[in-house]
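Predict the 3D structure for this chain.
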Amino acid sequence: MTIKNSVKTALKGLAEHKSRSALTILGIVVGITAIIMVMSLGRGAENLILDQIQSIGAKTIAVIPGREPSGPTDIISTFTDSLKDRDLAFLEKKENVPHLAKAMPVVFGAETVSYAGETYRPNIFGLTNLFTDIYHVFPATGRLFEEEEIKNYADIAIIGARVREELFGLDDPLGEKIRIKGRNFRVIGVLGQEGQSSFLNFDEVVIVPYTTAQRYIFGIKYFHRLVLEADLEENVLVTVEDIKRTLRESHNITDPEKDDFFVQTQADALETVGAITGALTLFLTAVAAISLVVGGIGIMNIMLVSVTERTREIGLRKAVGATGRDILRQFLFEAVMLTGFGGAVGVTLGITLSFLVSLALARFAGLDWIFSIPPTAIFLGLGVAAAVGLVFGIYPARQAALKNPIDALRYE
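Done. Predicted structure below.
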């Protein structure tokens, strides 16, 4: 029997039991749909995060206190007080870090802000005016801090668009005083509708001079971060080395293994995020693939039932000249066609649902989410579906091929 005839016979066998065939491939459809969605949304999340990192600029360098975490349990080690005014002063000396163009201390935390009976809990950031250059956000109305105001611990604040909406509604907040930690802060500026930028939602922040935040809001004498910028992109690596050397001298550290800080460039962040999202997507894909195994077992069971039901048909075909190989091929084709069709439906459904979820995230969550389907996801979905049919179809097909034609014809 030719392959063409085997395919026709297999299609006829599947067509005679449409409902059963449809239910049989349901597990395959669900599994492939899940794989496509995980890979699509994983790629979308990776692109979103990478875009956020790149928006800061390739020349930006972050100095973070504590030892560099090597796993989730090490995150707490970054909450230390190892970065202080002395370190900032050392870094700003030209002889120590020749290619350093900008340096901004950062302190942050969440606090309740109130005005005229209205309350809201935004993120409080203590920064300098350099935040406009580094994060590319600017007041839509009002002004930035003055140098003297930063030095003199001025009680002034720049608020985000959401903070304005929650506390002031349609009223003009400029010149009004908001209350934070029992202290009044005069609003001197309002940011435009910025949304999410560089992992920060600037609509939901209150920015005050870092000196004021340290003394009156958080009560600390250290920084949570130092955000630096090299003069040129090609000088980033040498600047990183100068920063490490300077901070080790400031902290009297002779062994790099004992650093109480770590330096992260945008390239480091991109590599780390890519590795994390890739591993997470792979893990979720493996979890979703479990349903394919379940679906494969279902197909094997249904094929075994089909072999039993069609025993007389098998005996008749063998009696008129069909070989065991022909029977094996026919039932194997049926299994592969079932899973292949389920894979095609799953890929189509997965792409459709991924597009709808991406659209919802972009429209309703306010994220700059771009729909993306990796070509490997489609090939993987169809390939895995066919492989499942092949693997789980071999045993039933072999059982059919081994049937004795005389016994099969006598089967009732």
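The chain has two domains: 3-53+272-410, 99-229.
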